[in-house]
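Question (not urgent): is this output format expected?
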Amino acid sequence: MKTSDFDYILPPEYIAQTPAEPRDHSKLLVLSKKDGTIEHKHFYDLPDYLSEGDVLVFNESRVIPARLMGRKSGSGGKVEILLLHPKGDGLWETLVKPGQRVREGTVIEIGTGDLSVTAEVMERGQGGIRTIRFSDESKLDKLGIVPLPPYIHTSINDPERYQTVYARVKGSVAAPTAGLHFTPELLSKIQVKGVELKFVTLHVGMGSFKPVKVDDPAQHLMHKEYGEVSNEVADRINKAKADGRRIINVGTTSVRLVETAAKQNANGKLSAYADWTGHFILPGYDFAVPDALVTNFHLPKSTLLMLVAAFAGTKNIRVAYSQAIEHNYRFYSFGDAMLII
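Got this back:
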């Protein structure tokens, strides 16, 4: 297995710059992992593939306004800060641009007047990573804006369009995008069918967008993200599995989390979890929890594409992505969706 096995050519015009309206009018490619058959539908057709007793598992993490624009105290040079995760006592791990010019001890001013904070660089890491102490982190929500992925070059009028309708727990710097297609009405329709909706939390980090750069993907150092699975959700999923009912994960982030929680137990059953995970899933992996998966179309050589290939089969994914391009599907965060059953 090589990283190049997960490469493909995507013309730039296939990268969705804006979300579908309404949310559930995006396209839906339905792929059978058993025989590789493909159907072309719309996301609002999803209930047709669900049955009473199924359990849908969602990631309810909410994207924080993590992008801050500041200026260096004294020189006034522009600095962009991306919040990655809090470290306590006003400290945050961040990604800073331009990284080469922001040294330890640099003070950055953000905002004006009463709505302003200072940010002091306490520690310098590699690749633009900086540990920063903010004078008042309670103001960051008002000073920051929701960051969009680097391949989206069009601003959106409503930041809520880069949030799922069920997003609740603040902490992500990127949206769990498979969930962007759901509307409140579609969720209600699904529940009327007797499908259970269960929610876990995995705070998505910028590592989701980083391609694997080593030839052997097994040598890739997976980024870590913080996640939580409650006792109640673990018990309900275990009960459904014992009853022979399907678990359908929405998004690769929810898969990584429940697989982490299940793999900590020798019997493969899910249990409560509250910790960081750097679980890297490659083809050949034996899944303990999901029976089906709702996902978007992912970047070449990405860990997300590798996880999807592990779930559906690398050959099936190659054919599905080829067909998606042939049928003018839209790719990546604001793009169309795939249901793997």
